[in-house]
Amino acid sequence: MARIIYAVAGEGFGHASRAHFVGQRFLEAGHDVIFAASLRALLYLRPYYGERVKEIFGLSYDYSKGYVDPMATLWKNLSHFPRGHRLNRELFEQVYQPFEPDLVITDFEPFSAWWAWRHRVPFISIDNEHLLTLCELDHEFRDLFGHLNAKVVVRFHYLGAKAYVITNFFQAPLKSKAAVLAPPIVRPAIARLQPSEAGHIVVYATTGTDEQRWRDVLGRFAAQEFHVYGFNKDAQWQNCVFKAASTEGFATDLAAARGVIASAGYSLLSECLYLRKKMLLLPLAGQYEQLLNARYVEKLGLGVWSKQVEESVVSRFLDRIDEPFPQDGGILWPDNEKFIGTLRTVLASLDTRARIAI
């Protein structure tokens, strides 16, 4: 049996749901696992694992203007850092050191990675962000600043992992022998669904977006019904059915959708691929990873993208939505068991007792 610390970034839903799935496999293999999480990941994991989940101070973004504001993000994290530093010091001294972990796993959580590096505890990285630094990708020159900024952020998070398991939806040449690509994971609630087509389009509007703008654009397609999430209300306006937040309801709607309009976050993108739903992606400004996701989705024939919702791009999306899905060998379709197989191979190559049984 191995003692494992599994540290999880708090921003976004994908980190937490991935840690839930992978962490459960370690527990089922008989290992002792402590989770360290912040923000949304803390709220997500605690109902499942109770006292196994410890709070860690985590970095967060400022989306108050509808996009990632760099200066507001910096100030937000600096203002919370004194409390966060105390919280993390207590966590390291009272939990990490007495636990004496054999392995630390970090899903883009930097403080546990640096702790492991300083204390010479082997650690591995499981995330999608290291695609930006450890893979050869196609970038456009006009986005050079965003590209370089994103790489700096990823490099700043941590280095020195024994292995980097990079989940991604397309093949890309690797730049490091320590890195390996693995297909996306989807949460079990999605994996159990059977896709169908009820004819509606699911819309997931991000924080800070203008409801009236959505109404103006979507209302021009009277023949198409849209199920709109993100404004947390139940209402109907012409062809737009607004729906309150519901994890189960959204998943059911997604499985029955004709297509999806959303930002280009990795978690929802993976669920769309698993359910074979074409996408119109609207990457959040200031999130270079989302811009890259959106461009590769269109390049691979999995959907289209735009910097903002407009009548012309919705029309282009609807014109192409019924085209067959590509059978491109460069696409890594979500596959939970293939991911576990890749992780099993990585663990077998390391000097650690942590293993996942077949």
Number of strands: 14
Principal-axes shape call: globular
The CATH topology of the largest domain is what? Rossmann fold
| Main sheet overview | 7 strands, parallel
Mean pLDDT: 92
Beta content comes to 15-25%
The number of distinct helices, counting runs of at least 4 residues, comes to: 13
Q: What is the first-to-last residue Cα distance?
A: 16 Å
| Helix percent band | 40-55%
Order of helices and strands: EHEHEHEHEHHEEHEHEEEHEHEHEHH
CATH-wise, what's the superfamily of the largest domain? Answer: Glycogen Phosphorylase B
CATH C-level name of the largest domain: Alpha Beta
The number of distinct structural domains comes to 2
Q: Going across the biggest sheet, name each strand in turn.
A: 3-2-1-4-5-6-7
Known CATH architecture of the largest domain: 3-Layer(aba) Sandwich
Radius of gyration: 20 Å
Structural class: alpha/beta
Low-confidence stretches: none
Key traits:
2 domains; Rossmann fold; seven-stranded parallel sheet; alpha/beta; 13 helices; globular; 16% strand; 358 residues; seven-stranded mixed sheet; single chain
